[in-house]
């Protein structure tokens, strides 16, 4: 029978391997706060942020400060297309996205912009690659929404496991040894083993602006010890987040879509 000390060592080992992965925060303070608190309670000891900290929402400065604080305590963060738009302008964005970027640029300090300039396009750990969009060409900000686009990503990078965001809809793609690409729609809090018999591409969904019909914030937990990933859905104070968007004078649709998750 294991002693309490041995059981504590085993728990610590599991906690040390638990990574919380958050993408597409989009200046939603209420959603980010809820996800970070949820991940802390779940035992996450590492955090990886996949970009788009700003845009759409009304709390860009607070969200960036929070991510920067997590980085100071060992977290990893990469660049998203909305973050890049703060630096280069909203090229190719929709009207409401461009309006949000223009407003956001007025809210951020020079230090915040300097921080965004330091962020890399991707981050690799072992056989896992973290990136905001399609890993075959991260700088082009292409979406991964179906098996064909997933195959493009598989063929364009050597990682066994690729983890991305950008789409705002959680998905999991697998590439078999027979070169068959399969697609899954993960369900809440269901552990999925990332078998070494396949290559995997996990699309995180969005913390701050989900678009899969579920308004709850979305992030994932990756257990490196068991090689399992779980998508988590976290309710948050949508009313407050939407009210802030309206008070800021941002497009009304950016507030109303939070209630439907579309």
From TrEMBL:
Molecular function GO labels: phosphatase activity
Pfam families: Metallophos_2
InterPro entries per UniProt: Ap4A_hydrolase, Calcineurin-like_PHP_lpxH, Metallo-depent_PP-like, Pesterase_MJ0912
Span of domain Calcineurin-like phosphoesterase: 19-226
SUPFAM superfamilies attached to this UniProt entry: Metallo-dependent phosphatases (SSF56300)
Origin superkingdom: Bacteria
GO cellular component terms, A-Z: cytoplasm
Family (UniProt): Belongs to the metallophosphoesterase superfamily. YfcE family.
Name of the protein in question: Metallophosphoesterase family protein
Organism: Roseomonas indoligenes
